[in-house]
């Protein structure tokens, strides 16, 4: 148990909204601490993926740590927050981010639980991009790669300009770790998925990034 002896409670005032603001602040701090711990646990795995290593997937602990990170990252985005707010009845007061994000974490835990308890239903693919079109990422870093968003999970996550992950759910998992080298056409396809899911795009090469903005299209 951690004991904090010098904690200062937030100052209250006559504002009726103050108690809610205090709760929001405390909830936000707790969620951010949880996210930070999950991200720190997955940091070494992400470095390995960035170097083209995928053997860590065979180790149970590494797999669980990555799936936990993957699941929380999928839901922890402005896009998901926007969709959640759209589901809120216009007659009700919109939910604050500090209420929605814990709900998103609960939903991500449900996905992770399914992944961990049914490992044979999932397989991971390392995408190797040796083309002249680097991967880009965006504010929605993990996107649903399923056609028409139907069928089992097939989630795409670019890690670097060269390496990306596909996490797919199948009842009959292919044996072993899968590595796939893609060409520029396939890189365009994945980059467009990121473009269509993100309000903000990120790339290491400005010349590539401009191709996916209003200034130009492939």
Radius of gyration computed on alpha carbons? 20 Å
Could you name the ranges where pLDDT drops below 50 across 5 or more consecutive residues?
A: 1-5
Helix-strand string: HHHHEEEEEEHEH
Secondary structural class: alpha+beta
Descriptive account of the structure:
The protein is globular, with a radius of gyration of 20 Å. The longest helix has 33 residues, at 18-50. It has 218 residues and is of the alpha+beta class. Helix content is 44%, strand content 14%. It is built from 6 helices and 7 strands, in the order H-H-H-H-E-E-E-E-E-E-H-E-H. Strand 4 (154-158) and strand 5 form a beta hairpin. The strands form 2 sheets. The protein has a 5-stranded mixed β-sheet with strand order 3-4-5-1-6, covered by helices on one side. It has a two-stranded antiparallel sheet with strand order 2-7. It has helices spanning 18-50, 60-75, 78-86, 97-117, 184-197, 206-209; strands at residues 122-129, 137-138, 143-144, 154-158, 163-169, 178-182, 201-202. Helix 1 (18-50) packs across helix 2.
């Amino acid at each position: 148990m951690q004991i904090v002896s010098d904690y200062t409670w937030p100052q209250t005032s006559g504002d009726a909204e103050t108690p809610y603001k205090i709760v929001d602040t405390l909830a936000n701090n707790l969620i951010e601490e949880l996210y930070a711990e999950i991200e720190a646990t997955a940091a070494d795995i992400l470095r390995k993926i960035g170097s083209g290593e995928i053997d860590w997937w065979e180790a149970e602990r590494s797999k669980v740590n990555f799936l936990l990170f993957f699941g929380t990252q999928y839901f922890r985005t402005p896009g998901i927050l926007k969709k959640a707010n759209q589901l809120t009845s216009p007659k009700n007061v919109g939910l604050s981010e500090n209420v929605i994000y814990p709900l998103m974490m609960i939903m991500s835990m449900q996905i992770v639980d399914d992944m961990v308890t049914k490992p044979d239903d999932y397989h991971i693919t390392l995408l190797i991009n040796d083309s002249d079109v680097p991967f880009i990422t965006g504010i929605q870093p993990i996107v649903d790669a399923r056609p028409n968003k139907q069928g089992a999970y097939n989630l795409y996550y670019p890690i670097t300009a060269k390496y990306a992950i596909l996490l797919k759910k199948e009842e009959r998992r292919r044996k072993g770790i899968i590595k796939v080298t893609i060409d520029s056409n396939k890189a365009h396809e994945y980059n467009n998925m990121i473009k269509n899911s993100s309000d903000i795009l990120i790339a290491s090469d400005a010349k590539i990034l401009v191709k996916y903005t209003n200034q130009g299209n492939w």
